[in-house]
Write a structure and sequence with these properties.
5% of the residues lie in helices and 62% in strands. By secondary structure, the protein is mainly beta. Strands 1, 2, 3, 4, 5, 6, 7, 8, 9, 10 and 11 form an 11-stranded antiparallel beta sheet that branches. A hairpin with a 2-residue loop joins strand 4 and strand 5. The relative contact order is 0.20.
């Protein structure tokens, strides 16, 4: 499950990180022309922002116990979710951990979430 930027460059989608200097870092899991290996199974190419066909944010959403959440991580059958309903009393009733003002998260079993879907924003 992914939560992060995706750039379309030369007709292909890549994990991406936009820079403040007009550059976009593109990441590939395999070798590709012009990409440098920066770690096992991780390749990087930096391109100018005006070379990128699109740059969008991919967000994974789900429902847990009837409430809306954003998926922010996953590990061995557990999913880290962040409440997106905006109601503190509901977050408290669900027993969510407050990680910042208005930000509530929890680890939940993967098989307890429903409506799992991704959206580009």
């Amino acid at each position: 499950m992914k939560d992060g930027y995706v750039a379309r460059w030369q007709g292909r989608d890549y994990d991406a990180v936009p820079g403040v200097d007009g550059e976009v870092r593109l990441y590939s899991a395999g070798p590709a022309e012009g990409f440098a290996e920066i770690g096992p199974g991780r390749f990087l190419r930096i391109v100018r922002e005006d070379e990128v066909e699109s740059l969008r944010y991919l967000r994974t959403r789900c429902t847990w116990r009837g409430e809306p959440f954003v998926v922010i991580g996953e590990h061995e059958g557990w999913v880290r979710v962040e409440y997106s309903g905006g109601r503190a009393p509901v977050a408290a009733a669900l027993g969510l951990e407050r990680v910042d003002i208005g930000v509530y998260q929890a680890w939940v079993a993967r098989d307890e979430i429903t409506g799992l879907h991704q959206e580009l924003i």
